Amino acid sequence: AGTSRIGGLSDKQIQKYVKETGFAPSELEFLYRRFKSLCKRGDTLSRADVADNEHLKTNPYVNRLYSVMPKNEFGEVTFDTFVTTAAVFRPGKDINGKLQFIFNLFDYNMDDTLEAHELSDMIRTVRPDIADDENQELVKKTMEDILAKGGDLY
Questions:
Q1: Tell me: the pLDDT tens digits for 120-151?
Q2: In this protein, which residues make up the domain named EF-hand (predicted)?
Q3: Could you tell me if 85 and 79 are in contact, meaning their C-beta atoms sit under 8 angstroms apart?
Q4: Which is the most buried residue in 19, 76, 108, 144, by most CB within 10 A?
């Protein structure tokens, strides 16, 4: 087995992640340390770890991100998932992968469609300061734009 170069990652794991994600070893070191600092109950990131973290628990983006990340059999995020999720947004990565990930963030019921109430929830997340009538007007305008461009609402 390769000796540990980064915290608990072996040289073999580092090589694997460099190849799969495009991150440099120094970037992997940063991500691994950040991940481990978030994991208060072991080697995986639990919903409780996020909920108990003062900097994360009130951030709606973090909560949605955690919700859509693949989990292990215990419902927790592994470092492997953490690093491959972070890699989606690296420069040069496929735009379709990025768009699919962002779409999934706002497809709250995971039915592969964005419904009006999901769009409304998304707007509320991004702009909690706007009034309900303005939110509904944005939803209506967005839906009209989608249809005008030949899109399908369902």
A1: 988 888 888 999 999 999 999 988 888 888 76
A2: 94-129
A3: no
A4: 76
Give pLDDT tens digits for 55-112. 888 887 888 889 889 999 999 999 999 999 999 999 988 899 898 888 888 888 888 8
The full set of domains in the chain, from first to last, is: 1-93 (1.10.238.10), 107-154 (no CATH)
What distance in Å separates the CA atoms of residue 58 and residue 43, rounded to the nearest whole number? 23
Q: Secondary structure of the chain: what % helix, strand, coil (to 5)?
A: 60, 5, 40
Contact 106, 61 (CB under 8 A): no
Residue 33 makes CB contacts below 8 A (sequence gap 6+) with: 7
Among the listed residues 134, 136, 43, the one whose alpha carbon sits nearest the alpha carbon of residue 81 = 43
Q: What angle do CA 100, 55, 36 make, to 5 degrees?
A: 75
